[in-house]
Design a protein that fits this description.
CATH topology of chain B: Alpha-Beta Plaits
Distance between the termini of chain A: 17 Å
Number of helices of chain A: 14
Number of strands of chain A: 0
Number of domains of chain A: 1
Order of helices and strands of chain A: HHHHHHHHHHHHHH
Largest sheet of chain A: none
Largest interface: A-B, 48 and 52 residues
Oligomer: heterodimer
CATH architecture of chain B: 2-Layer Sandwich
Structural class of chain A: mainly alpha
Number of strands of chain B: 10
């Protein structure tokens, strides 16, 4: 099937070449990082995780979000999702690959990566993260490829794939739960030490993943002959809306606990992120914007007239995606390190090579989505012709 | 009924799985917790059996804050960083620290007393606390950092993958990461007269390091380098032995430990 990705318009090839350039630039930057060390990034003794781990965390969410089309299709037999469930799975594949790459570029000794397998450590959450992420990648490859292949041949999906589809549902929940547990079990990091971390991660994931899916499908509908169906898009939009409301509610819960209890350690990071602390406030405009943009996105989704308009829907989904990205893909990880264990503040400024590497991984994600979607759409277009 | 080896192993495995063998699933998530709990229980029942219940050796460090001064601190830091070939990067972004000085309000950020400033001016030395219940050991995905039976929290520079999970987990900011190649910096310093300690390895970039309680000196029956440098200020001994030097001092002096509320049980005590 993959040969379908080799036939495309000049715009398609232009896009592919653009992504390859992005990836090439990132690879050069990564070679530089391999040679010199992680010192080329903006990370420091105080901010020991930066852009890479923040992006990793965000894209685990995007990957898990795919399950929001799998559940209605396979647990509730919602047939309107029949044609698009494979797009959710393919998006998950790209997102998980991005996650794995973000981990690889973040570690100081990538050649020793297999130590995680050679010395399995069941009391480390990173050990479980390795298992669930790789497992989720495999599950989505199995499910996505086989459902599409069956569609192409015009036969029902083979029975042996079904169990894998059902396993992939709790598995999706697990990847983001374990990722939340990376943070939520660390003593002394007040901002992360919250039982609501995993639920909040899942809520923002179920908003961000489907929001991205809608945006891509709206684009696909515009440039190809494949129509995902209005009703399907509207139903996903409702999922995005509910999940985003839950996410904002959970965020409000964090604010309540911190500021009603008035415990300084619990308030400090939130103060730093949203108001500035001791004269430091690099992230304040972004975090405030995230709240406003997030509320704006929810408003757009709540008004049926706007939601049904493709432009309104695209804007709403872009808002939700951006708001959750700032909140989780920037503020959450960086914020956890501020203030540091000595209650002093070191701020974080990502460097150009660091951003180039991160952009390249986005490029890899874009390339995987492009190729897989091209294949899937070609199959769908053939079906439409028949 | 006779039980052959095979059957016995099966039964042992099963009971361990369900937690009947003393260590259950909780042990997997909280290494050391069960031993600590068991030791604690037997303490309650019979104080005379204290020694038998817990580990025989648990190394601890006592720092007499009242006896410290600038000169001694310099000597301590220099001795340690010389012994362990710790480079001096001279900038906070890349710096590696095994032992260093900070103010009371940073060392005990939750214990600020606005009506009494006696402690504020005092110098505090910071180092790895070699916690009895170390979060860094819990999170390390490759057991590159691990707790030894004598209580030391050790770091294997050859196994560390540099994920820095331990740095996020340490509530004391005791861990440093080699963001750049430390050997390059050491060479630069050697050009300016720095000496290399040939008895201790240098590290490569991309791994985490921290105070090791001079495990290499303990193996030779010596005291840690800092203690040897200022024997009237720092004391090192066996916390598990009620008759040890450190236990005697702890009985007499008031001592502080950092962030006790987190349950990490630090082994570094500050004598006031």
């Amino acid at each position: 099937m993959i040969e379908k990705a080799l036939k495309g318009s000049s715009v398609y090839w232009g896009w592919i070449i653009f992504l390859l350039c992005l990836i090439g630039a990132g690879m050069m930057a990564y070679l530089y990082q391999l040679k010199v060390g992680l010192g080329i990034t903006g990370m420091s003794r105080d901010i020991s995780w930066g852009v890479y781990i923040a992006q990793f965390t965000y894209f685990v969410g995007v990957a898990a979000g795919g399950v929001m089309v799998v559940i209605p299709k396979y647990l509730h037999h919602y047939t309107k999702y029949g044609k698009i469930v494979v797009f959710g799975e393919f998006l998950a594949i790209a997102a998980v690959v991005m996650c794995l790459l973000f981990i690889v570029v973040d570690i100081g000794q990538p050649m020793r990566m297999l130590n995680v397998v050679l010395h399995p450590t069941p009391h480390s959450m990173l050990f479980y993260d390795m298992i669930v992420l790789n497992g989720y990648l495999l599950l989505n490859i199995i499910c996505g490829y086989n459902t599409l292949l069956a569609d192409k041949k015009g036969v029902p999906c083979p029975g042996w794939v079904k169990p894998f589809i059902y396993i992939s549902i709790p598995w999706a929940i697990s990847i983001h739960t374990v990722t939340a547990f990376l943070y939520a079990g660390l003593p002394g990091r007040h901002f992360w030490l919250t039982a609501i971390m995993a639920p909040r991660f899942l809520a923002s994931a179920f908003a961000a993943g489907p929001a991205l899916l809608i945006m891509i499908l709206l684009f696909v509908r515009k440039v190809t002959k494949f129509d995902p169906g209005d009703e399907a898009l509207q139903t996903i939009a409702k999922t995005v809306c509910y999940a985003m409301i839950a996410n904002l509610f959970f965020m409000g819960c964090e604010f309540f606990t911190a500021f009603y209890s008035q415990i300084p350690g619990h308030m400090h990071t939130l103060e730093y992120l949203f108001a500035g602390l001791d004269g430091y406030g690099n992230l304040v405009p972004f975090m405030r914007a995230a709240i406003v943009i997030g509320l704006f996105g929810v408003f757009l989704l709540l008004v049926p007239r706007i939601r049904r308009n493709p432009k309104g829907l695209a804007l709403a989904c872009a808002s939700v995606f951006l708001a959750t990205w700032i909140d989780k893909g920037v503020g959450l990880v960086i914020g956890g390190f501020i203030p540091n264990p000595f209650e002093t503040i070191t701020e974080y400024h990502p460097t150009l090579p660091e951003i180039t590497i991160a952009a390249a991984i986005w490029g890899v994600g874009g390339l995987i989505v492009t190729i897989l979607y091209k294949v899937a759409i070609s199959v769908r277009e053939e079906q439409a012709r028949v | 009924m006779s039980m052959d080896r095979r059957k016995f192993l099966k039964a042992a495995g099963l009971t361990t799985l369900v937690g009947l063998g003393g260590k259950g699933v909780f042990e997997l998530l909280r290494p050391g917790a069960v031993e600590a709990e068991m030791a604690h229980e037997s303490h309650g029942h019979d104080k005379h059996h204290e020694q038998e219940a817990g580990p025989k050796v648990r190394w601890a460090m006592l720092i007499d804050v009242m006896a410290l001064n600038k000169e001694k601190i310099e000597k301590i830091v220099h001795t340690c960083h010389y012994l362990h070939n710790v480079p001096n990067w001279g900038d906070p972004k890349n710096e590696i620290k095994w032992i260093w000085e900070d103010e009371y309000e940073h060392v005990f950020p939750d214990s600020y007393n606005e009506y009494n400033h006696i402690l504020e001016g005092l110098p505090f030395l910071l180092l790895c606390n070699h916690c009895d219940n170390p979060p860094c050991v819990r999170v390390c995905p490759v057991q590159a950092t691990f707790k030894r039976p004598d209580g030391l929290v050790a770091q294997d520079y050859h196994r560390c993958i540099g994920c820095r999970f331990c740095m996020a987990a340490c509530p004391y900011g005791s861990r440093s990461f080699n963001w750049l190649d430390p050997r390059v910096q050491l060479k630069k310093e050697m050009a300016h007269g720095r000496k290399l300690n040939k008895q201790f390895p240098t590290r490569m970039r991309g791994v985490v390091e921290k105070c090791n309680f001079c495990v290499e000196r303990l193996a030779e029956g010596k005291q840690p380098g800092c203690v040897e440098a200022v024997p009237d200020v720092m004391f090192f001994g066996n916390l598990a032995d009620p008759n040890s030097n450190v236990r005697k001092i702890l009985k007499e002096r008031i001592s502080l430990r950092r962030k006790l509320e987190l349950g990490t049980k630090p082994s570094v005590f500050y004598l006031i």
